[in-house]
Write a structure and sequence with these properties.
binds 3-methyl-2-oxobutanoic acid; 11 helices; 8 strands; alpha/beta; 260 residues; 14% strand
Length: 260
Amino acid sequence: MTTINTIQKKKGIEKITAITAYDALFGRIFDSYVDFILVGDSLSQSFGGHKDTLAIGIDEMIYHTKAVCKGANQSLIVGDMSFGSYQNETMAIKNAVRFYKETQAGAIKLEGGSARAKIIQSIIQEGIAVMGHIGLMPQFARSEGGYKIKGKDDQSITQLKEDALALQEAGVFAIVLEGIKSEVATEITQMLTIPTIGIGSGANCDGQILVWSDAFGFFTEFKPKFVRRYLEGEQILKQALQAYIDDVKAQRFPSQEESY
Ligand code: KIV
């Protein structure tokens, strides 16, 4: 079974792979292929139909994390703390503890840099493994007026480096670098002793993560530049669906073998 130690040992040796999943069915399919499965709050957008990740709550995140843990038992499972579930230390610890008590997740993830370092340290001191997330933080997209790439100017670069170091100091076992200019993500990756997991942050992060419905062509409303589609899922599924409909209408389904 993959642990946070397995993942940390891969830094500088082998690329770390990760994908999201939100239920037992896909948890089982992805299990053991990737080093870790993130039950991301991207669930809110990709499957909940919301415009951003803000609507989803901690109860829903725990429900979906529980389901993924039922399907997967080899890859490390990381559960995402939802927007508004870690506003202060007491609330953050309470909700992080819920993940460990109510699910089999090996770690949790939350967004924020130096401003959140103290809260993150307190969670880790309770015995909960934490993955950081800096750069483009979807939970801040509404207040920032959109999804903004980070590391484009000196101030942003300095802030990102400070954030990465503060999280490492706080004790996170890895950090997601999202939407960061490649050269800056490279510098951060070289500067840290813990692994970086990139999404839209170039090829030199220690690992990569993608949202499964983006990577396999099921979420087609828009395709960010960093997404590579490994499958045209929606198209293939619709062809299969049409074949089923045609069979029913033409009375080819069910056959005698498919009947009792
Ligand atoms: O919610 C999510 O899926 C994420 C990844 C994009 C890193 O945070």
